[in-house]
Amino acid sequence: MNISTLSIGDEVIFGEIVDTNVAHIASRLYESGFQLRRHLCVGDNEPDIMDAIEMLASHNDFVIATGGLGPTVDDLTARSAARATARRLVLNEDALAHLKERYRIMNREMLPSTEKQALLPTKITLVPNPIGTACGFIIPHKGCFLFFLPGVPVEMKRMLDETVIPFILSRTKQKTSIETRVMRVLGLSETHVENRIKELARPREGLTIAYCVSFPEVEVKLRAEGENEARIRELLDTTAEKVREQLGDHLVAEGGETIDTVVASLFRKKGVTLSLAESCTGGLIAARITDLAGSSAYFLEGAVTYSNDTKIRRLQVLPELLEKEGAVSSTTAMAMARGIRKASGSDIALAVTGIAGPEGGSEEKPVGTVFLALAGRSDCTAKRYQFNGDRERIRRMTAFTALDWLRRHLMSLPDVQIED
């Protein structure tokens, strides 16, 4: 079963917007047991659209095209589809009725030029659009079914789920089940991850392992394919357990979890509170923590202390320490952690200070030098890191490393005891 996608629009081809439609389509098809064969993207150019339609129709069973169904002069998809499939372009009465009803519901005046959205090829099947003005349509051509959907993501998603995927499923005699498990790894390169687990792949049994860098993590994707869903799950369960053994504590999250959600869950499970003192990250760690609902149960406060004066005033870091060791040092990081823990009354506190660049480095402390410190009620530890990359990568790596510190520390603590 060959399925491909086609994105149409100058805004996509010029990089003015990110094409999220194709990612969503690929994901939903994958969940339904299908894989995309190819994706093409063309601008608002009639010959290019026609060529793409002709080429994709010749090599696929189904093609899902998005974009170019609007009312303006640069929306050329319907006309291009009509010419590419040797059809006339006519005013579709059902599409026009839908258009008028949508404008009535929106309580807006429908201009005569808007009727352009009802000019569609002959011999088509309409794809209802329950939340937008432009109907989609299906054209059978050269043994291929061509789906044309609006480019507006919220509209496309509804039409994909309610019409397109059911249409494809109804014309597929045998569907292979496909399931993927995603495991997120931190602290190992893609090559090191592969070297540890590549022997676990069993392609003859339908199990493959793919790797994807989502900086600073490496995503390990276990994919199993077959006709027996129970066998697929058993294969994935067995392999996932072996991956856990090989990757150890570098494995930070699985499935739909992220390092953020894992840390949040651990805070609730362990019953401890947190405060943060951030310098080079400028609040990125606090932002990731507070992005999750319910974080107020364990996160007390965060201080962004960029200047030395702020470190002295807010965190009670001694001026002579800053003078002697500098703002970027293990002793300063520990003083920051102790200071914010004392000020907030939290159980634990984490501090980061470093040089994110592009300027400010020295031979002794080059750009990318970062110190992390974690303070508890009785002890405080710090460590120096040397990260590489531009300012954004250094700050992102620091934030993930800080979250990993919290994850590892929380895992070492006993669970909170809840009285009956």
What spatial order of strands do you see in the largest sheet?
A: 2-1-3-8-7-6
Beta-sheet strand percentage?
Answer: 15-25%
Radius of gyration: 28 Å
Q: Which structural class should the secondary elements be placed in?
A: alpha/beta
Which word captures the global form? elongated
Number of helices: 14
* Name of the CATH superfamily of the largest domain: MoaB/Mog-like domain
Task: Give a written overview of the molecule.
It is a single chain. The protein is α/β, with parallel strands linked by helices. It has three domains: 3-170, MoaB/Mog-like domain (Molybdenum Cofactor Biosythetic Enzyme, Chain A, 3-Layer(aba) Sandwich); 177-254, Alpha-Beta Plaits (2-Layer Sandwich), CATH 3.30.70.2860; 266-411, CinA-like (Maf protein, Alpha-Beta Complex). 40% of the residues lie in helices and 24% in strands. It is built from 14 helices and 17 strands. It is elongated and about 85 Å long.
List the helices and strands and how they pair.
Layout: E1 3-8, H1 10-13, H2 20-31, E2 36-42, H3 46-59, E3 62-66, H4 77-84, E4 89-91, H5 93-106, E5 119-121, E6 125-127, E7 136-141, E8 144-149, H6 153-170, E9 177-185, H7 190-197, E10 207-214, E11 217-226, H8 229-247, E12 251-254, H9 259-270, E13 274-278, H10 284-290, E14 299-304, H11 308-315, H12 319-325, H13 330-344, E15 348-354, E16 369-375, E17 380-386, H14 391-411
Parallel strand pairs: 1-2, 1-3, 3-8, 13-14, 13-15
Antiparallel strand pairs: 4-5, 6-7, 7-8, 9-11, 9-12, 10-11, 15-16, 16-17
Helix pairs in contact: 2-6, 3-4, 9-14
